[in-house]
Amino acid sequence: MKTETTLTAQKPGNLHKETFPVTGMTCAACASSVETILQHTPGVKSAAVNFATNTVQVEYDHTTTPEDLNTALTEIGYGLVVGSKDVQEAVQEEQEKKFQSVKKQTIGAAALTLPVFILGMFFMDWEPGKWISLVLSIPVLFYFGKNFYTNAWKQARHGKANMDTLVALSTGIAFIFSVFNTLFPEFWHQRGIHPHVYYEAATVIIVFISFGKMLEEKAKSQTGTALKKLMGLQPKTLTRLQDGKAREIKIEEVLVGDRILIKPGEKIPVDGKVLEGSSFLDESMISGEPVSVEKKAGDSVYSGTINQKGSLEIEAVKVGASTLLAQIIQRVQEAQGSKAPVQKLVDKIAGIFVPVVIGIALLTFGVWMIYGGDNAFSHALLAAVSVLVIACPCALGLATPTAIMVGVGKGAENNILIRDAESLELGHKVNAIILDKTGTITEGKPTVSSVQWAAGNHHEVSSKQSIVSSGSANHLPLTTHYLQILYTLESKSAHPLAEAVVKHLKTENVKATDLEHFESITARGVSGRKNGRTYFVGNRQLLQENGISIPKNLESTAQEWSNQAQTVIWFADQDNAQAILGIQDQLKPSSKAAVAQLQKSGVEVYMLTGDNRQTAAAVAQEVGIADYRAEVMPEDKSEFVKRLQENGKIVAMVGDGINDSEALAQADVSIAMGHGSDIAMDVAKITLITSDLQKIQQAFQLSHLTVNGIKQNLFWAFIYNLIGIPIAAGVLYPINGFLLDPMIAGAAMAFSSVSVVMNSLRLKIRKL
């Protein structure tokens, strides 16, 4: 199903809005270049690049074609994947292809760099070692690492500089200088200088940065999994009823108005209206509620929801891209694409740092050429190379990834799985958080919370006392006979709440009994006969229709439980109501404390749920949330996130269901509960393995510590440059005759990298 293309009538002609996968992008600056080129292509009205998913959404008129757009980008080294293939599938293929390519480059570069590193560190004076290193370095830099040079050239053509520019410059200069020293050592010997080579420095930089790129591509290659699973919710085929005959057809062939048969256990293929039959549908993907919803003639059904035990005949009302499921898929895609890619802090710094370093190196060379005396050129070249080597990006390149890797590991130790570095960086800034109700604040599983019998003996299920043994001499005892009938009736019922009653009675060791008759009464409950007497389990309406007397104590308790957002189930014989059972989705033990913790830290807490207002109000009040919304659809949650963002909030969304996926994709920081749906966990960038909501505050604290670590790393990376670059340029030479050797510059660069790594590792001992 293609959800990426929409057509809108415009003048003149039609305005096409289409999403294309982009090839060749390696950084946020590339994304900016692609966007700029497309926006200036004739016929294009707008272009928006999503670097995270490697796609671009283009609006263009009839005067241009996708092939024209591809041609415009090909001229500057990028490209579009054009064709009838589904966009998401094409994106995944491109991302997987890119990951495999970077992986091969990293492994190949590392394999050749290892001997170069050993020769450079331990056999630096062995003459043949220089030639071996030269031969091994060439493929590392210009085959496995060629992307750094081509990307640097692309940036230079647009007057920009980034991390690739710094890598290309430092490794290129180190390599060229080393080649010169290998081929013409006598040039330095004549001037009383021993020539060193820096092949190991150049190749190690390529390997380090390539490894970081590989991790980045691995993360990006997994971004389409959620959409793929969402698409998997829609069946490939369906059973169409035509002229009294049932025929299986492909989903693409269904038309509005078709009559469709839905068998037990099947997914609903389209949005429609029930014509015949009754059943219960699992609509948790829409509402998030675990209790299946009863459907009968005239009720609406939605694509992707799951039929339970009954058969239905429905009329197709919306098909293809018009269905609710298709719209959810499209909105998740758009939400992921609407986030402007966060320009990495390192790239921002590199954009300033690279020109400054180049300027200092050129200035150094010029000053030495003018004032260097007899050996002006030698000193000028050595000093300029020393500046470029000591400003090598190793520490700068390691500053962010090492802190993040340690932070991710620390999170895993505390049951917080982090899939995306951006979320880890943003977490400490969150000032508004939205919590889903079912499965997030509550357990997400309806259970029997209270039982009261007509005699007035109220029993809270949470107590250790067994309901079988409760009762007194003055009141009707809770006999095994009644419990067996209740258990048998509910075990035969198709109602989803019956499962909670059966599960509860099993814990009381209640056994089933034989019934003389059993009947399921649509929208009411069930009835059965035992020893000539009829028994009922269901709602109040079932009792009223059968003229059953309701004792006052049950009447008042049922009203009280309803006000507490409990669902009340009635048990009666043919004359009197005998008991009521209260069924409730219990709060998680940590929910109230977690909400209070977040509010204390200055975070605004909201609750959104597809459940009814009464239940939402009761849960919100119990956990201390003042601002909540009930009966919301998936798109309502996403819109609420957008409104908060438009008001300047950094928004976190916490959910566990398919119905939360849109809002999770839209939020700045997305957090899924580990027991939730696979789709929610795929969309979310942080997953809590446990059900403990207090882990949210820990995740934010981890973000704070990690970001502090990154800032400290950048400080250490730059303090060496701040001190080392002037020394490398030769500022001490007029004072004491000291001129920094490029070899010492390389050692200083290595020490700065060690400092960064050691500082990152300090996070491991910090307490969350």
Protein described:
By secondary structure, the protein is α+β, with helices and mostly antiparallel strands. The chain folds into six domains: 6-83, Alpha-Beta Plaits (2-Layer Sandwich), CATH 3.30.70.100; 86-161 and 172-221, no CATH class; 235-322, Calcium-transporting ATPase, cytoplasmic transduction domain A (Distorted Sandwich), CATH 2.70.150; 342-410 and 697-768, no CATH class; 411-442 and 588-696, Rossmann fold (3-Layer(aba) Sandwich); 445-586, 3-Layer(aba) Sandwich (Calcium-transporting ATPase, cytoplasmic domain N), CATH 3.40.1110.10. 50% of the residues lie in helices and 19% in strands. It contains 28 helices and 28 strands. The strands form five sheets. The protein has a seven-stranded mixed β-sheet, with helices on both faces. Strand 1 and strand 2 form a beta hairpin. Helix 3 (87-122) packs antiparallel against helix 4 (127-144). The chain is elongated, with a radius of gyration of 34 Å. The two termini are 45 Å apart. The model is unreliable at 1-13, 337-343, 456-460 and 462-478 (pLDDT under 50).
